[in-house]
Specification:
Length: 399
């Protein structure tokens, strides 16, 4: 398999999703070589086309999450459009959508209908609360997922207000879990020939990611609180002040703590009864913080980073975004900010997906489509429509 093909070469995805969670999944699949067909409403398309930041009145937000995809328009409220979509489903492997539960059923295009059209179709849906339960019909957004899933309650500083994680982590987790689900269904279909419905909730995705925080309560009855950058289970594992910013020191076990003590020139701390074991350092984290901070303040971020890592103790800068996007590891060696030439915008550094593969490559294969850009190619190739048919459908508002 050549590098240009991608692991998912030949897989056809109909992407009905909008904004972030669903498009994130579609972008992962497209970067790995799937033919992802972005199906948008002819009147305006994906909501994120109108979301900033903008360059020349074109959305960078949309460009980032819809690169590598081809695009067509289809008014799914139109009866003829519904039939066209069903014909497309016959030729597709995966359908992904992130409408409020019940919307696709109301359109007559829910999984129960589509699996009759194509029993092998994999139907992936991501929504705020999932397709079951008393809250399933509620609209759900990232901040709702972070709030109800417990993440906000443990994010922030002691005594402060519940805090949203600085990036839409609920949406990102939902998109990742949708990707995992549809790929697992694709593997299973190779064995059974049958498709599957994959039902992902943002709230579930956040709740699942809470992991040990939830288990603290389940096993002890203690409700974890906001503790800033500190970690519940080990210390020193925190952000510390440096001369020119903040630095992470992650001395997560006794060996690493011993290295930290030596680098700080305080070997006697290894025998200090307050700090002998992990549980002791967690219990006395305030005193430990003051000791480590007194040392870290004497150095720059990069000095702390280099001193500790050279000795074998994990540490890193708390990168501001301007540092992160030029970091030689992230931006250089790992190529996390490749450039595309986006129509209407020009040269644009977007954010790559993190999957690094050996025989093939996951990378942005083309710019995001303009609204309806690939109508002719998609409908001619997939369904055999000629130009006269396309003109007729456009005149009727079907596409």
């Amino acid at each position: 398999m050549s590098e240009n093909k991608g692991l998912l070469d030949g897989v056809v995805v109909l992407d009905l999703t909008r904004v972030l969670a669903g498009p994130y999944c579609g972008a992962i699949l497209a970067d790995m070589g799937a033919t992802v067909i972005k199906v948008e409403n002819p009147k305006g398309g994906d909501d994120s086309r109108s979301m900033g930041p903008f360059v020349n009145d074109n959305s960078v937000y949309f460009a980032n999450f819809n690169r590598s995809k081809v695009g067509c328009t289809l008014n799914l409220k139109d009866p003829e459009a519904k039939e066209i979509f069903k014909e497309m489903v016959k030729k597709a492997d995966i359908v992904i959508e992130n409408y409020r539960p019940g919307t696709m059923e109301k359109l007559g295009l829910g999984y129960d209908v589509l699996k009759e059209v194509n029993p092998a179709i994999i139907y992936g849906a991501v929504s705020g609360f999932g397709h079951t339960g008393p809250l399933s019909k509620r609209a759900g957004y990232d901040i709702v997922g972070q709030a109800m899933g417990g993440l906000m309650s443990t994010t922030g500083w002691p005594g402060g207000k519940p805090t949203r994680v600085g990036t839409p982590m609920g949406d990102v987790l939902g998109g990742l879990n949708l990707t995992i689900g549809v790929l697992a269904a694709l593997v299973n279909r190779q064995k059974t020939g049958l498709g599957e419905k994959v039902d992902i909730a943002l709230v579930d995705s956040v709740a699942s990611a809470m992991e040990n925080i939830t288990m603290i309560y389940q096993s002890t009855g203690r409700i974890p609180q906001r503790i800033g950058n500190r970690y519940e289970s080990t210390y020193p594992y925190d952000a510390f002040p440096a001369k020119d910013g903040d630095v992470i020191i992650a001395a997560g076990n006794n060996k690493l703590y011993g290295i930290l003590c030596d680098v700080m020139g305080r070997p006697e701390l290894k025998q200090d009864p307050r700090f002998l074991e992990v549980k002791d350092r967690v219990a006395n984290h305030e005193a430990m913080y003051e000791i480590v901070s007194a040392w870290s303040k004497q150095h720059t971020v990069d000095e702390v980073d280099q001193l500790l890592n050279a000795a074998g103790c994990p540490a890193s800068p708390v990168n501001t975004i301007d540092r992160m996007v030029v970091d030689p590891q992230i931006a250089g060696a790992r190529e996390m900010f490749p450039e595309i030439d986006q129509p209407g915008i020009g040269k644009l550094h977007i954010t790559a997906m993190p999957q690094k593969l050996t025989r093939t490559k996951s990378y942005p294969r083309k710019p995001a489509p303009l609204l309806g850009e690939d109508n002719a190619e998609i409908y001619q190739k997939m369904l055999g429509f000629d130009q006269a048919k396309l003109d007729e459908l456009k005149a009727k508002g079907v596409i």
